[in-house]
Amino acid sequence: MSAELYHPIAFLVSMNVVLWSTPAVKNFGLKSGHVDRPNDRKVHQRPMVRLGGVSIFSGTISSLAIVWLFGGFDTIDRATQWEILGAILGGCGFFLIGLGDDVFNLTATSRLVMQSMVAAGAWYMGVGIDFLSVPLYGLVQLGWLSLPVTIIWLVGMANAINWIDGLDGLAAGVSGISALVMLVVALFMEQPAAAMIAAALAGGALGFLRYNFNPAEIFMGDGGAYFMGFTLAAVGAIGLVKTTAVTGVLLPYLILAVPILDMSTVILSRIKHGKSPFVADKRHLHHRLLQAGIPQRLTVVFIYALTFWLGSLALGFSGIPSGWGYALGATMLLVYLSWEVKRKSRNNEQ
Q: Is residue 224 within 8 Å of 98, Cβ to Cβ?
């Protein structure tokens, strides 16, 4: 089979598994009572099944297993195969931690400890950040600091995606857009194995939007959010940061800037107001937009556009042909939606 076919196959298989399995997962969740109930902090008004991550996980992993079985990873060297296996097994570990929280309501400390252990295991298998880009200086080798930096990156991104999962379709859409951009960039940077994981994740995330976009029928839960956040971070580590180019090191942070900046801003705001950074509140970007009177769908689409715009900048900086053309189109879309957001906000004030 032609090597160019494996990536669309991974995308389509993952998407179709999610599309077919989600209704069954929803029915199981309703019968078993695994639902997310409304409260003062949450936006939804009725109990919602929170096991949708099972479908995303099943679609992504089954897609990668099929591609692996048919030789999609045969051309990569053994070291890279270990990195891919580390990313897949790490994703499994993060999914199980999140699923455990969805079912048993684990404590924040226990989740953090288990996540750090799984991230350390993934680092041992090659999913690591070996150098950072320092402004006005260049690349800095991390040495033994690679382990803690990698753990912070993997664990932080898993939780960042979980934290933005506050509106119908928000986390799935942001993750799907980010995965598609990573797919294109990884292929351009000749990292086909990492691109395969991105393709499978993109198919699963975008397929889940069929049931998760407003009005949602099911939530992904912590299992889905942790899995997607870790996998995106892992693809960035093994597919983009491995290059010694300064732009390559910065690309994953640019592609995932929306959840990164949202999480960082919320943590700093909570600390500033004397609150624990781990206590949930309504300081996230989507909460602020809703409080300004922006409709939920427009809020989600605006954050999609912001994610796509940052991703298009990554396409431009990576040197992809017509990359800056995509960035121009994304800029125009973002300007238009920003105008719509501002107009809705003004109407609400009147």
A: yes
Measured in whole angstroms, how far is the alpha carbon of residue 123 from the centre of its chain?
Answer: 19
Can you spell out the DSSP letters for 189-228? TT-HHHHHHHHHHHHHHHHHHHHHSSSPS---HHHHHHHH
- Local structure of residue 292 (DSSP, 8 states): T
Question: What's the rounded Cα separation, in Å, for the pair 19 and 13?
Answer: 10
Cα separation, 63 vs 65, whole angstroms: 5
If phi > 0 it is left, if psi is from -120 to 50 it is alpha, else beta; for residue 190 that is: left
What's the CA gap between 194 and 158, in Å, rounded? 18
Query: What are the pLDDT digits (tens) for 334-344?
Result: 999 999 999 88
Whether 13 and 203 have beta carbons less than 8 Å apart is answered as yes
- What region does 49 belong to: left with phi over 0, alpha with psi -120 to 50, or beta? beta
Of 276, 266, 271, 339, which Cα lies nearest the Cα of 305?
339
Nearest in space to 175 (alpha carbons), one of 224, 127, 125? 224
In angstroms, how far is CA 127 from the centroid of its own chain?
Answer: 16
pLDDT grade, residue 43 (50/70/90)? low
Sign (positive/negative) of CA torsion 284, 289, 290, 295?
negative
Q: Is the pLDDT of residue 19 over 80?
A: yes
Report the DSSP pairing between strands 35-36 and 48-49. Answer: antiparallel
**Is the pTM higher than 0.70?**
yes
Structure tokens at 350: 């009147």
DSSP labels, 119-168 = HHHHHHTT----EEEETTTEEEE-GGGHHHHHHHHHHHHHHHHHHTTTST
Strands, E assignment, 173-310: none
